[in-house]
């Protein structure tokens, strides 16, 4: 019987539809080459849909819940007040679907330029696991005396043992399959209460995983060590806010936002996980054909691995890396190929099976995708 998976597609705003279109073209090629099928349903979600209907995540929650996985483009538009889409759709989905771990590989691929002098792919191959439903992103706060000189803004940050424990345990299991090193990144000398809870959980769970070496780095020190000595790190686990910041730094190190990818993982199979590039909607270049679709296509690779299509996931990753390594630049017209041309070239390599597996001999995407329970 042919393997089949149901995919919810959310192209979203800005460059989202362009890069998702490329990812779906690559998915067509992967299906033809690797003997599986997908049932896809596209949903109108994002700024345009919100402005027309006022609908956010609640309008599609039950339909999305039935999918095996979600492929997400981007969301955001200058016409919509900041915070409405981010809180009303993205954060709401992460919390309602308990997508507890945001997993972001930081991997410098062969042939991809980096602004870090003398950095080689062998020195940059780590993964950052960001707690994805709590911290400062619970979306709770208030302003008193708004609009006056006496305005007071309060923003809550919530840390629960249960929330920390599930993402730390996942990170230990991830480290077991890699180089067996786990680093906690926090700010324990200032955020004492939250920091102590994180440290306590890491210490207690560490007793279950004696094979894994545990390290600690303050978040400000991480901003120094990560670009200069990325080889120091294997699996980094951190809270929601710190993870949001240091993963963007990681993206710069690995060649830019256009090549960075992520997975928002539901760890127990009770709801679909969601896969997305991290570059945002970039409305200033939407429709110009100058967006790099690699991040979205690597998100597809993560999704395929999560669904049990490991061979296809590695093939998509290898094809993407081969095309990236041949580009004169990784952003804008200087790439030498348009968004669609890059997608087509990657799809052709996947379909032909000619991409060199040597480019990704220890595929990080396959390692990550094998750990959480899928819904198949």
Helical amount among residues, as a percent range?
A: 25-40%
Q: How many structural units, i.e. domains?
A: 2
Please count the helical segments. 12
The CATH architecture designation of the largest domain is 3-Layer(aba) Sandwich
Arithmetic mean pLDDT:
93
CATH superfamily assignment of the largest domain? Isopropylmalate Dehydrogenase
The low-confidence runs, each spanning 5 or more residues with pLDDT under 50, are none
How do the strands of the widest beta sheet line up side by side?
Answer: 2-1-3-12-11-4-5-10-8-9
Coarse structural class: alpha/beta
DSSP summary, beta strand count: 12
The major sheet is characterized as: 10 strands, mixed
Beta percentage is 15-25%
Top-tier CATH class of the largest domain: Alpha Beta
The CATH topology of the largest domain is Isopropylmalate Dehydrogenase
Query: What is the element string, with H for helices and E for strands?
Result: EHEHHEHEEEEHEHEHEHEEHHHH
Distance separating the two termini: 14 Å
Shape: globular
Rounded to an integer, what's the Rg over CA atoms? 20 Å
